[in-house]
Design goal:
Layout: H1 4-25, E1 36-43, E2 51-52, H2 54-64, E3 70-71, E4 74-83, E5 86-99, E6 101-119, E7 122-139
């Protein structure tokens, strides 16, 4: 049986994951400051992005995401390995992205492999790695 602390930790981490998707899909890069630790290591290279720190990722997103005027990050099933103030979490993500017009859509399936840490009673992502699943480039 899960303890109340583990239930709370899981719910708080799920909230961080939802806030991440919302920040990315709303193009609010500065909201990522409350999601990642200051020294976060983020690797999006398997899906065509870069590997770098949070400042580098925010600059990359700002320069490259405008080609996709609409996206939806659907983060779904997560597995948790909670260890006190650290959690290893793997989350599946389905991410359709519209390319310039609704006649060209890129569909991506991936997993986020994260290490969360509790910082001042708040869960944040310390390391994030995107594991490539698949992609489909659909043009009408």
């Amino acid at each position: 049986m899960l303890s109340l602390q583990e239930i709370s930790d899981r719910m708080e981490i799920q909230d961080v994951l939802a806030r991440y998707s919302d920040a990315i899909d709303s193009r609010r890069w500065d909201d990522l400051d409350a999601i990642f630790t200051e020294d976060a290591e983020i690797d999006y290279s398997e899906m065509g992005g870069i590997s770098g720190n949070l400042a580098e990722q925010k600059a990359f997103l700002d320069a490259n995401v405008p080609v996709f005027p609409v996206s939806q990050h659907l983060a779904a099933t997560s597995t948790f390995d909670l260890r006190g103030d650290e959690a290893h979490v793997r989350t599946i993500c389905f991410n359709p992205m519209v390319v310039k017009d609704e006649k060209h859509v890129l569909f991506c399936g991936l997993w986020y492999r994260d290490v969360f840490v509790r910082v001042n009673d708040t869960w944040r992502i310390k390391t994030r790695h995107q594991d490539r699943g698949w992609s489909l480039d659909l043009r009408r």
